[in-house]
Specification:
By secondary structure, the protein is mainly α. The protein contains 18 helices and no strands. Helix 8 runs parallel beside helix 11.
């Protein structure tokens, strides 16, 4: 027998240097990285809460806005406007409590546990959508980095709380991806759902409508332009009918002391926290820095000539947040779904030296874990 017959082929030889290596798909890398970042934040929160003899479950599932959504699922919406600071639950849009009630009806466990599971599941769909947008525009590395940066947002803990940010981000991300992929009707349907999820759903509708109006000669695009705002308009109109006044929803917003003032209150808080307050609350400083950084990132997005849908979505979201005269402390959370603001950072990190990229990502992840726990355990108000 020839000696060559006993010689293994390169592909089957154990440890052969030229054997093909299986690469982990970029989407899997992005989702694993996302889960890792959020899991680290949860570990830090748990250890910190244990030292303070504080339970983690109430923080994630039953406090603040989560309590309102659970109450809506249990008892429905208010029928009267109520007094100032009365906590009228009509300010909360209906898609999340409707989903919560429907899923809880066919699954075991409490509605609070169901809400938390929905948030985690939606966060994974959102992370997938964030990766898809980054990957389509700039390639896999940027897609993975964009996903990690979104996971490491300073108030990223909210992604795994009984809130609507993860659900809304998932709808917004896939609506933007559908626009980039020239699927206007899909984008419009997702915009309708986003408009039933949060007040800032109007930003998703604006992105779809403005983009599609540039293709108004195409019947599908024209239909999508008119369809996109219907979810937001439907809920605002329903609240008006329920309260018997045309400005019903905006009257509810006023009971929460939340009106648009053109940015006067925002500038006043900037000046107070950065110039006059000698001992500012650390969490409010974080909110202020996040807002200022978001303005800078939007300017970079314009400079980088991001696609129109992304610029409209982030621009309208940023305008709503900055022009609000209402409560100041949740504004970093309001910007959580505006993930395209992080795209300039992801693009620049992708082109950076590996050691610089690792250092920046590590710093972002560790700071997010710290700020999440600080927000939940030290800051005394809602996130």
């Amino acid at each position: 027998m020839s000696s060559t017959a006993l010689r293994p082929t390169p592909n089957t030889a154990a440890g052969a240097p030229n054997a093909p290596r299986r690469r982990v798909p970029a989407l899997v890398q992005a989702l694993l990285a996302y889960v890792g970042v959020r899991a680290l934040g949860l570990v830090v929160l748990s250890l910190w809460a244990h030292r303070q003899h504080h339970g983690v479950w109430p923080i994630l599932a039953t406090q603040w806005d989560a309590e309102y959504y659970l109450a809506i699922a249990d008892h429905g919406y208010a029928r009267e406007l109520g007094a100032m600071d009365g906590g009228n639950n009509l300010v909360f849009f209906p898609l999340h409590p409707v989903l919560l009630k429907a899923v809880a009806a066919v699954t075991p466990g409490t509605r609070a546990s169901t809400a938390l599971c929905l948030a985690v599941a939606a966060s994974l769909v959102a992370a997938w959508g964030v990766f898809a947008v980054g990957d389509r525009l700039h390639g896999r590395r940027v897609g993975v980095l964009l996903t990690v940066l979104w996971a490491a947002f300073p108030v990223g803990l909210v992604q795994w709380m009984g809130y609507t940010e993860s659900l809304f981000t998932a709808l917004a991300a896939w609506a933007l991806y559908a626009l980039l992929a020239d699927r206007p009707l899909t984008a419009a349907c997702l915009a309708v759902l986003a408009g039933l999820t949060r007040p800032t759903g109007i930003a998703v509708a604006a992105a779809v409508t403005v983009t599609c109006l540039f293709s108004w000669r195409r019947p599908r695009a024209l239909a999508a332009a008119f369809l996109a705002p219907l979810g937001w308009c439907a809920y605002v109109g329903w609240v008006g009918l329920r309260l018997g006044r045309w400005d019903g929803y905006f009257a509810v917003q006023r009971t929460w002391r939340n009106e648009l003032d053109g940015g006067v209150e925002t500038l006043r808080r900037f000046r107070s926290l950065l110039a006059y307050d000698s001992t500012p609350e650390l969490f409010l400083v974080l909110v202020t820095v996040t807002l200022l950084a978001s303005v800078l990132l939007f300017a970079l997005s314009v400079r980088d000539r991001q696609p129109l849908p992304l610029l409209v979505f982030t621009g309208v979201t940023l305008l709503i947040v900055l022009a609000s005269g209402g409560v100041y402390f949740p504004r970093a959370r309001y910007l959580l779904p505006a993930f395209p603001l992080l795209l300039p950072l992801a693009v620049r990190l992708a082109g950076a030296a590996p050691r610089h990229r690792r250092a920046a990502v590590t710093a972002a992840v560790l700071s997010s874990a710290y700020w999440g726990a600080y927000m939940a355990l030290v800051w005394t108000g809602p996130p």
